[in-house]
Structure formats: structure tokens, C-alpha cells
Write the C-alpha cells for this entry.
Amino acid sequence: MLNWWLPENVSTYGNDIDWLFHLIYAITGITAILVFVTMAFFLVKYRAGAGRPVKYTHGNTTLEIVWTVVPALILVVLTFLSAPAWSRIKMNIPASDLEILVTAKQFNWQVTYPGSDKVFLDEMHVPVNKIVRVRLKSQDVIHSFFVPQFRMKQDAVPGREILQWFEVVKPGRYEWPCAELCGFGHSGMRGWVHVHTADDYKKWVAENLAAAGAPAEEKKDEPKKNEKEKAKP
Amino acid sequence: MSSTTATAHGHATHAGHHELGFVQTYIFSRDHKMIARQFLFLGLFMMILGGLLALVVRWQLAWPETAVPGLGGILKETSGILEPSTYNMAFTMHATIMIFFVIMPILAGCFGNFCIPLMLGARDMAFPVLNMLSIWTTASAGVIMLVGFFVPGGHAAAGWTSYAPLSAVPSYTGTNWGQNIWCISLFIMGIGSMMGSINYVTTVINMRAPGMKLFRMPLVVWSLFITAILLLLAMPVLTSGVAMLLFDRTLGTSWFRPSGGGEPLLWQHLFWYFGHPEVYILILPAMGIASEILPVFARKPIFGYHAMAFSMIGIAFLSWIVYGHHMFVSGMNPALGMAFTVTTMIIAVPSAIKTFNWLGTLWGGSIRFTVPMLNALAFVSMFVIGGLSGIFMASTPVDIFIQDTYFIVAHIHYVVFGGSIFGAFAAIYYWFPKMFGRMTNPLLGHLHFWPTFVFFNLTFFPMHIIGVGGQMRRIYNPMQYEFLQHQQHWNVFITVSALCLGVAQIPFVINFFWSLFAGQKAPLNPWNANTLEWSAPSPPPHLNWGATLPTVYRGPYEYNAPESREDFLPQWQAPVRAGAPRH
């Protein structure tokens, strides 16, 4: 209940989303309660037969202005509070030397790492506490990359390459469903994102991305690069 | 126009001398009231089908891959168990039918036709023949849509939004003619809607009775007028879109297929450019209906008439520039997403204004809890929930998580069922006496309303919870996902509630048909309401009024006005002059 039914969050930007989510919960919850209590009070107090004279009125301009301006202000504030998180998650993709290509198809995620021809079906391996960039493509219909615990969702659109990112703070195995209807096999199209500790990830790279000097190896985070510059091959 | 007026005049002078034959009275009728009834029957019939499809979907979600009771005879090969492709077809057609063939025919089609001429004091619509063509075009589209269930490969299964290229290439869904028929049917339906809306707009502008100034029009007419303008502008976009989709599927064009250089997101832009105004097309008439019924049963003028009218106009304008919020994670430029957040937040303001004005109308009234009033109050309260849950989606970061989850499903159903359908029920109970000349049974009305209200909430509120838990919409079997298994009990709960919600509609069907034939005869003005339709006989004859049309002397909501002895003062009642006898 504390989390209001949200799944556990394990990504760095997930907190920004959850914080806004809870803020909107509070705003809408309080508004709903105020409206319903007022309505119930009116319905009981002004029911026919209570013997009160009807107030003949066509409205009140001051009230109209108040209940136009107050919701407008709240919503404008909410817009300004939403902007930084959106900008952080979707608009300013941070630099990283780990970039993974995900090509969706009916009904699998195909994962490839730079410098390796190997295609991993429905599984992705990433290190913990590291920015991971994902190049998202689709070879047939629209799919949607969704990892609930990362608070990450992005449609994969055929004919486009969309750059996304995430950084996970807790090692584990996270379910990775497709969130956009993609055909009769849509349900059950899911993979797993395995988040390893730095050492485990090194081991996995050594075992699975055989080519020497695999770029996915751990390096110190480099200073921010130009976004358009691709990670070194 | 001139010929229409001449015909109307000719009929008026000859009224009573000759009767129209059966076919002209009941089938190819040009009378707006008969056309309204035809739209109502079309909508109610389709509602049964759309509702059953919803229950099939729910059965699968609660008890996945078990035989659906009653489907053994239809799905013989699987002995009643839904396959994923059949499941996709069921939810696609549930939404398509409910939106295009239930809510639009009932709210815009039926009540638009019924209310506009009667409440404005017109003898009929501006273009009665076009009006007749509108119902028959829409009905043909409905028949074509139903044919889709019987073609090989099944009906459309790409969702009601039919995102390309899933919908644009037959091999991606395995549906061939089903999707083509879906396109053709919606194309024809769109033409029917345009015919109707041209008529509504013209009638409102040109055919108001003497004294019926624009700002004396009842709010329901305002809402239908604005809806008609939205339809007139949105429907061409949908019809173009489905035509392009059909060409992609059959003629080898590549509007939406990237393999030929097309752009899948173009479909989404077209669809939602239509689709968002469409949401307001579905809800605005219900807002008008609530604004009409609340003052009648609170015996008090509507609070803030001008604010109500202008907020609807505001919604209509804003509805064109918010559609991008359906596409925040679609791959559209994220900077554009930010712009759509601003507009989406702003469009909540006119809805808030309306809600507070409805509360203001209740304040200090003398509230009668009749069946239409209960449904109108349900509309207001459910619309509050649906409106507030929309704010989550307006906030782009939050939308990243809840996009394509059951939270969205909950939201749309609070708006479209909690809003539009309760509005439709309110309207049916309210205007039934005028439409059919008989009263509905209040006991059956209560038996319908209360279980519907309770089970509606038990069905759709938990969808917020499983949506926040991450359950995606349009999945066939939630049990395939480990992170969803712990909340499967909610799916069972929702389905049981949905089945009860279905059963709760039985009193409505009984009430409707029983009242149609055996209901108590309705007096002229059973609710003591002020608007012009209540001055015509129940049901109004062809051309609505006798030799003279009513004259309008005041606004539509003069309840408990100080200058009248009664608690209502109809629009058509001449002001009492000094020396003139009161009647």
C-alpha cells in the first residue's frame, strides 16, 4: 500500500516519475474527496422535502473566476514540475560507452552488442550502476519496450531508430514485456533484462561476447560527449 | 432550403388530411423524431453486441484459456476457448462498436436529431432528406461492420486504433478482409456522420423559433451544436485515414508502410487528430444532457449558463491541439511531447469549470431523485474520476509508465461509460415520455440504475490498480507474466463485477420495451420543465406543432423565478402584462 500498487523501482530516473505520480495522486485524491463530499452534502441538505426555499441564482462571477484560476494554476505548476523529468529521461540522453541494439520483431526482442554478431533472443545483460544506451528498432510492426521496474517505455517503430537509456541501481532479473499490440503473439512477447554486478557482468561478457576487446567491458565513465557521436566500436 | 420550407409548409397546411404510408413513416422517414428513434434502436442493438464482446474479453482475462460459456457453438474448433487472434478481434470490435455504433448513434445521432429541432422550435431539420440518408448510411455501415465477423480470417484484430503497419499489412495480423471491411465501414459511417452534422449546424444557425437567441438555447443544444462542428471537422480526417489504410492494404500504396517509404507515425497523427476531438464528441452531448437535467430536478437555474457554454467552446478549440498526448512514447519528437503536455493540462480547466458549475446548480436547490436525475448525477461524479485520472496522463513522465496499461483502460471507461453511457441513460429516461408518449417505470429504473452504478465502479475502479501494477492493455493472458501474477485476483474480481454489470442491464431492457407498449401515457410536460419540446404533444406529431410555432420569451432555466407563481417558467409562456389575465 505504501507504494500505491506500483512495482518496485530500480532505475535512477524512476524516482522522478514516482515522485510526480504520488504528487498527482495527492492532488487528484484531495480534489476528488472535496468534490464528492460537497456533492453528497448538497444532495442531502438540499433534497426536496427538506422544506428549504430554493435559492434563485444564475451564478456568481467571482466564483467562476476563482474556480477557473485555481485549477489553472495547479495545472501550470504541474506542467513545470513534469518538464525536468521528461527532459532528463527522453530529451537529454546521457553519454555512455555501453550501447546495445534492440531490434523488435513479431514476437521477440533481438539484442546485439557492439563488436559481436551474436543475437540474443529475449534476453539482455547489463551491468548495474551504469548508463546503458539502447538503440531501438523494429523490423515489422510497432512494438513497445517496457520494463516496469525501470519505469521505462518506448515504442519501437519500423523505419526509425530511437535512442533511449536507463541506469539500474539493483542487480536482478527484470521482466521485459512488449506493451504495444503487435499481433496474435503480442501477449507473451517478453524478455528478461539481467542486471549484473560489475564483476558478474565482466564474466558474462567474457563468456558470451567472445571477440577480444569487447566494447561492452567496464570502463570509467567518460566525460559527456556530443550526443550524436556514436560510442566507440 | 427554399424547397424544404415549401414542403414543410405544404405538409403543415395539409396535416391531418393524409397519412404517410408505413414505409414512409417507419422506415424511410424524413421526420427527425423517427430518425432519432432509428438511431436509438441501432445504438441499443449494437450495445448488446458490444457488451457481450466485452464480457468475452473479461472472461479470458479472469480465467485464461478456459471455455467461454455460450461460445462452444460458435468457436467449434476450440470448443469455446478463445485463441489469441480471436481475443484480439473481440477487444478490437468491442471498442469499435461501442464508440462508432453505440455512443455516437445514441448521443449525437438520436438525441441530436430529437432535441435540436424540438428544443429550438423548428418543425424539422434543415435538410430532412439528408437526415434520412444519414441514418441509412450509418445503418449500412453497421451492417457492413457486422459482415466482417463472417469473413475468412475473422474481423479486424489490430485494436480500435488500428496502428499501422500492423493494420496495413495483412500478414502481420492474419486478418485480410476483416480489416478491409473495418476500413470500408468506418469510411461510410464517417460520411453518415458528416451528413448529420451539416444538418445540425445548419438547423441551429437558421431554424430557431422567434425569440430563440443563441444564448437562450438550452445547453444540450449548445453541446450538440459544438459536437456537430467537431464531427464536421474530425470525420474527414478519419475517413481519409481509413481510405489511405485501405489503399495500403489493397492497392499497394505505402502511406504507412515503411517498406515502401511510408511512415507508421503518420497514421497515429491522423488517427489521433481525429481521435481526440472524437473523445469530446462522445462526452460533450452527455455534458449537455447533464446540464439540462440537473436544473430540472434541482428546480433551480443552471449555475453559470455563459460559463457552461463558453467552457464547451473552449473544450472544442483545445481538443484539436491536445491529441499528441496519445503519442508521448510513440517516437514522436519529445519536444513536441512537452508542448502537448501544456495544452493537455489546460484542457482540464474547462472541465473543472463545468464540474463546479454543476455543483453550484445543486447548491440551494430542491433536489428530486428521479431516475434521469440519478443517472445525470452518476455522470457528474464518474466524469470527475475520469477527468482527474486524465491528469496522470498529461504529465509526460508519469505517462511513460502508465501508457498502454490498464490505467488507460480505466480512464477511458470512466469517461466513456461513466460519462457518455450514464449520460445516454439519463437522456433516455428523461426524454422517453416525449419520444414515445409513455412514461418509463421508475421502480425498474431504480433497479437498473443502482446495480449499474455499483457494478460499474467495481468493474472499472480496480483497473486503475492493476494498471498501476503494470498490467498492459490488450494482452491475452496476464498469467504469462511473472510480475502480474500476484494481482490476478483483481482480474477475477473485475470479471465477476462485469458479469453483474451485464446482468444489471436486464431491467433496462424490460423497462424499455414494457414502457414502449404498456407504459402509463405521458402528459405534455411530466417533469415540469421549461424547454420548448415539452410544449409539443407527447409524442409530437409530424412537424411537431400545430399551425403556429412557439415563441420564446426567456432563457431555458427559469426555475423558481421570483416573477412566477409556479416553480417553473417555460420558455414559451408569454410574460404577464399589466391588466392581462393570468393563465
Observations:
- Residues 66 and 311 of chain B are 48 Å apart (CA to CA).
- Residues 1-17 of chain B have pLDDT under 50 and may be disordered.
- Chain B has 17 helices and no strands.
